What does this fold into?
Amino acid sequence: MLNLKLTRYQWTVLAAAWLGWGFDVFDGLLFNYVAPNAVPTLLGLPLGSPEARSATLYWTGLLTSLFLVGWAVGGVIFGVFSDRYGRRRTLMVTMVLYAVGTAACAFVTDIWQLTACRLIASLGIGGEWAAGAAMVAEVVDEKDRVDAGALLYTAAPFGLFLATGVNALVAGNLLIESPETSWRFVLLFGLLPAGVAFLVRLFIKEPERWLAAARSAPPPRIRELFNPVFWPRTRSALLMTFVALLTWWSCNAFIPVVSATLGQAAAAAAGLDKLATSTLVESWKTIATTSFNLGGLIGTLLTVPIAKRFGRRPMFAVYFGVAALSLMATFGLDIGDESRLYLYFFIGLSVFGVFGSFTYYLPELFPTRLRATGAGFCYNIGRVVAAVGPFVIGSVAAAGAGGPQVILNALLTLAVVPLIGLLFIPWVIETRGQQLPP
It folds into this structure.
């Protein structure tokens, strides 16, 4: 599927960007795994109570939405920073920022402190992606650009697998004994990316493409993305990222909550005790997230042959079509709840997998002096729009007292988003077979 022939240094750059993006996703989503315990604890609500479930849904949606706004702001700011001051420096600064912000969440004493720490982390998480994607696109050879870009995005499933594993390891050992404390230990693992940042400083240098552009080209301006020359490309990127981001975040933010709610309902129907209920809930969380992540990994790699053989425009059409069908099947079919969790594989294949294309498609649209600015702006500003999804779904589900069917119905409505995305396909700029703009 992938045919990469890279030098040792090119592999080093790809590895650094891969780790940066993987830990970016790891830190960004670690909170979602512990929200069912963290939110009630900080609000002083009994774990597992109807009030706790309703509050968890509401605050998960609200915090995710605020997190996405911070992510968008960080992406825009550090995209410009990367074009002005370098890819390497941006990678280091952003990784330290989101590592410290996530780990600080472990020490909060109320929900507002948690919100502030999450916002700090979101700035760094938003800024890392554009610098890493631009660096890989500029360092590897033209023939390897698509393969390297897709391989870079496989770090996202890695980040989710790691978050799942850390939560299972820590919460699995401490949850039953002290659920009010275990979530803090999970969030402390957010410090891991800080160590990788120092490796970036030791082994990575600025791309020659960027150095040449920095010496001769004027500094980037965001307003340039909207001039007649670049607007069609900016519009293409924005439409695709808006659809992908709104679907992904509205869906993914609630995977642990959905699986926990379904697990609790199944345990209550079976008359399980507290210990058995907790074990079942954690097991169902792992099933859902693993299915989603595995589908995302395969879907990410599949963007390579589809994009190379058929082009970027048909690729987006295929992924949006499959996304709509998978959402309707997972949340609309009358099937067993455990079977529903396994269907998250197909959501991951499409909703998650399409993001494997953005690491090569967005850098293809803009010249070197505007590459991180354009890619960072288009990839991240869509999160402001995407922020509406988790808040609305969380509020609707909370209004229904967190009932399983209410949550499923709310998520079923997401299928309309990729269907709307299919209407935008004619505006997609096709870059298949083109050289990276100088």
